[in-house]
């Protein structure tokens, strides 16, 4: 058998970690995480990092080995992941298992990314000012006009992601989504993408239950401890973002969309997580090479 990379992906809460571990045990492979948030050591509960028993079942890579204080991009992940993959193949593995729901990270490994331009300070500041005064909906409308593909696939509840996409469109005159290489770089191994899915109602029930479980596990306390780091891009993430907004409201910092109670914050996390899952499914439906697996 030639070298093969099995990528287990799918929407949040569908059960990717357990499925990937079962494959890893079958093929005597470690699990290479391709989750753009589980990579950060400061974020545990809100990113649904694999449990201690899961982490001990097989060796995992790219789990909580970077800091939110350090810039980390899909391009950097591409370099580090490909180096690791080559090392593991050279050690005698013929099948490797990758697991995660971050489509941009997976595309980086499978196809490579073109170099996205650096931020322009004056444009960035003007877009931030629009975000403050007009709200995220104004930037969303720009993105829907400038790049319908990005609008249909990125997390529209993430202000940093929306702002960056609009910024790149305005800087380059090109859609942000065009920076994913259309032809792709040829990799020296076979790639098989397995996308887990289940009936939407069941998935949404699992998401809602997992958010409650995260709160029971101490997500509110974890978010409070991360308040000093809230401006880092990694923390503009569902689960933390809504709680930060709730904390602001409790301190009298009025914001139009801020939850007025902890229960409302939890409900917002559930709603935004369901929206994110829908975006993930949209991302993979555009890829004809994906093998869909009902779980």
List the main descriptive attributes of the protein structure presented here.
alpha/beta, Histone, subunit A, Helix Hairpins, 12 helices, 6 strands
Structure in words:
- The chain is of the alpha/beta class and 295 residues long.
- It has 3 domains: 130 residues, P-loop containing nucleotide triphosphate hydrolases (Rossmann fold, 3-Layer(aba) Sandwich); 58 residues, Histone, subunit A, CATH 1.10.20; 76 residues, Crystal structure of tRNA isopentenylpyrophosphate transferase (bh2366) domain (Helix Hairpins, Orthogonal Bundle), CATH 1.10.287.
- The protein contains 12 helices and 6 strands.
- A 6-stranded parallel β-sheet has the order 3-2-4-1-5-6, sandwiched between helices.
- The chain is globular and about 60 Å long.
Anisotropy-based shape: globular
Strand order of the biggest β-sheet:
3-2-4-1-5-6
Sheet having the most strands:
6 strands, parallel
Q: Per DSSP, what share of the residues sits in E-state strands of 2 or more residues? A: 5-15%
- Number of structural units classed as domains: 3
Report the CATH architecture of the largest domain. 3-Layer(aba) Sandwich
Distance between the termini: 27 Å
| Highest-level CATH class of the largest domain | Alpha Beta
Q: How many β strands by DSSP?
A: 6
List the secondary-structure elements in sequence, H or E: EHEHEHEHHHHHEHHHHE
In terms of quaternary structure, what is this? single chain
Q: Which spans have pLDDT < 50 for at least 5 consecutive residues?
A: none
């Amino acid at each position: 058998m030639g070298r093969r990379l099995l990528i287990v992906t799918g929407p949040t809460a569908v059960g990717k970690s357990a499925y990937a571990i079962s494959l890893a045990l079958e093929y005597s492979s470690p699990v290479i995480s391709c989750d753009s948030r589980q990579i950060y050591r400061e974020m545990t509960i809100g990113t649904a990092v694999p449990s201690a028993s899961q982490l001990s079942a097989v060796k995992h890579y790219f789990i909580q080995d970077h800091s939110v204080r350090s810039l980390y991009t899909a391009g950097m992940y591409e370099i580090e992941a490909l180096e690791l993959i080559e090392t593991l193949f050279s050690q005698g593995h013929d099948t490797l298992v990758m697991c995660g729901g971050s489509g941009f990270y997976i595309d980086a490994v499978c196809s490579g990314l073109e170099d996205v331009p650096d931020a322009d300070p004056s444009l960035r500041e003007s877009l931030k000012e629009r975000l403050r005064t007009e709200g995220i909906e104004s930037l969303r409308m720009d993105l829907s006009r400038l790049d319908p593909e990005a609008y249909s696939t990125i997390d529209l509840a993430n202000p940093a992601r929306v702002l960056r996409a609009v910024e790149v469109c305005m800087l380059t005159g090109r859609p942000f989504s065009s920076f994913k290489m259309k032809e792709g770089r040829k990799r020296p191994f076979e790639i098989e993408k397995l996308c887990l899915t289940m009936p939407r109602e069941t998935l949404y029930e699992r998401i809602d239950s997992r958010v409650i479980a995260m709160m029971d596990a101490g997500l509110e306390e974890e978010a409070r401890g991360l308040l000093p780091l809230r401006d880092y891009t990694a923390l503009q993430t569902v689960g933390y973002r809504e709680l930060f907004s709730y904390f602001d409201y409790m301190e009298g910092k009025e914001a139009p969309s801020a939850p007025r109670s902890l229960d409302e914050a939890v409900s917002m996390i559930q709603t935004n997580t369901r929206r994110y899952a829908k975006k993930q499914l949209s991302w993979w439906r555009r890829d004809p090479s994906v093998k869909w697996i009902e779980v």
